[in-house]
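PROTEIN DESIGN WORKSHEET
SECTION A - STRUCTURE
LENGTH: 470
TOKENS:
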């Protein structure tokens, strides 16, 4: 089988059945990384010895007749803000290179490996996760496999690029204001931002504690569901990880969208999007028969409040580093963190009060609907280095505004699946938003769209041609 484009579920089935070995799968992934990462710049560390040792252990377990996990032999990689035993946790920064190697793996890595997955490396990201572009001044930009002259999106840019480029079928990222959903949209893959507090963040480098989420990116809904199920469960090492029962969703997704009340986010979410975002949303809505609109009250204000909280919490987290080593930051990240550290406490309090009100108003909407559709990004992938785009006649900064439609959702911790619509010349994503703790609903809708052919993680048309489009 061509494991470069096989889904994680297909790889696990083939390894479990003995049609291939975990060692063969992992060696093929390592070969792809060696061949293509010099161009895509998705990885900052490759763990060849560790990965091959884990693969050999899986093969030995199968030969001995032991049961294998649901992700047996599946190669995966993680954004480099996850602790990986033996590596310094970079979080995309220059300063963190000097950190001692992590003594243990992050909880979610351990849980995936307990289910048979094989960690092959750590992935590039925007510095300290304060980024929507996938560009990093210290490690270089991640490059979009659909056109290597274009952005992956960020801050989980290496995660999006690695999955879209066929280097691994599964990657982990983080999402504070859209950092899983933006790369999923620009790279044309599936991404899941779970409910705030659903998956453990233990042993990862934080950005904004009250907004940070972790989740998977993959090339199918089923792969998202399998990874999500493997990572579920309370973790006392993360104080916000909810003590809820594990609720497997992989067996549920085949139910599809039947019986679900699905609507479209109107108002703020329909104004000022590029034609490709409008087309993608229309295609998804038509496939689901969704025609009604619902308005999330004060969404524009919610985005502004999210900015205030992000900047203030991020600035406070990095204050000592800013004082001691300001010159070692990406200037764009440094300046926003400094500005955030100077936001008056009264404004932060006001933003938090609004946040509580907004959450109550949005949750009330879910009494009448099960899922809401919205654009994931206002446009398809911009060119690397592009500073601005024009939206409704207004010139806007790319870095700040790729998260235009993700921030009002992260702000109140709702679960979202980003699904890829394979438009030409570049893919773009749509968000499927559900009520808290209803990842199953968002994944069911995503699966229904995938089965209908409305969404798909398409193979990049360049294949192994490593030249940007002309």
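SECTION B - SEQUENCE
RESIDUE ASSIGNMENT:
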């Amino acid at each position: 089988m061509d494991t470069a484009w096989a889904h994680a579920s297909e790889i696990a089935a083939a390894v479990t059945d003995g049609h291939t070995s975990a060692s063969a799968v992992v060696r093929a992934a390592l070969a792809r990384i060696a061949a293509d990462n010099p161009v895509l710049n998705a990885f900052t560390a490759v763990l060849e010895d560790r990965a091959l040792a884990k693969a050999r252990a899986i093969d030995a377990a199968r030969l001995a007749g032991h049961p294998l996990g649901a992700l047996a032999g599946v190669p995966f990689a993680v954004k480099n803000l996850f602790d990986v035993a033996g590596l310094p946790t970079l979080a995309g920064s220059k300063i963190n290179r000097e950190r001692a190697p992590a003594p243990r793996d992050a909880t979610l890595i351990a849980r995936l490996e307990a289910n048979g997955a094989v960690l092959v490396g750590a992935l590039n990201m925007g510095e300290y996760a304060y980024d929507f572009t996938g560009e990093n001044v210290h490690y270089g930009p991640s490059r979009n496999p659909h056109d290597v002259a274009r952005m992956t999106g960020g801050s989980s840019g290496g995660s999006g690029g690695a999955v879209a480029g066929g280097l691994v079928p599964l990657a982990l990222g983080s999402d504070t204001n859209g950092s899983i959903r933006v790369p999923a949209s620009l790279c044309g893959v599936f991404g899941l931002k779970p409910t705030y507090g659903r998956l453990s963040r233990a042993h990862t480098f934080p950005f904004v504690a009250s907004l940070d989420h972790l989740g998977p990116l993959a090339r199918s809904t089923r792969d998202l569901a399998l990874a999500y199920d493997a990572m579920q469960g309370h973790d006392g090492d993360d104080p916000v990880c909810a003590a809820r029962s594990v609720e497997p969703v992989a067996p549920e997704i085949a139910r599809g969208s039947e019986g679900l009340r699905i609507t479209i986010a109107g108002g703020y979410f329909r104004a000022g999007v590029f034609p490709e975002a409008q087309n993608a949303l229309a295609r998804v809505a038509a496939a689901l028969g969704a025609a009604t609109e619902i308005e999330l009250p004060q969404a524009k204000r919610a985005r502004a409040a999210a900015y205030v909280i992000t900047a203030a919490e991020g600035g406070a987290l990095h204050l000592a580093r800013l004082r001691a080593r300001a010159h070692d930051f990406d200037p764009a990240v440094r300046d926003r963190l400094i500005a955030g550290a100077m936001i008056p406490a009264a404004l932060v309090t006001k933003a938090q009060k609004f946040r509580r009100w907004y959450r109550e108003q949005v949750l009330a909407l879910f009494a009448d609907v099960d899922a809401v559709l919205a654009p994931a990004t206002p446009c398809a992938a911009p060119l690397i280095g592009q500073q601005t785009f024009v939206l409704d006649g207004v010139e806007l900064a790319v870095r700040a505004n790729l998260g235009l439609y993700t921030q009002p959702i992260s702000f109140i911790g709702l679960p979202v699946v980003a699904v890829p619509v394979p438009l030409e010349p570049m893919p773009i994503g749509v968000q499927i938003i559900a009520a808290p703790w209803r990842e199953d609903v968002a994944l069911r809708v995503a699966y229904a769209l995938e089965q209908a052919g409305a969404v798909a993680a398409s193979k990049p048309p360049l294949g192994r041609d490593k030249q940007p489009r002309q």
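SECTION C - NOTES
The longest helix spans residues 345-365.
Residues 8-301+348-452 form a domain with the Amidase signature (AS) enzymes fold (CATH 3.90.1300.10).
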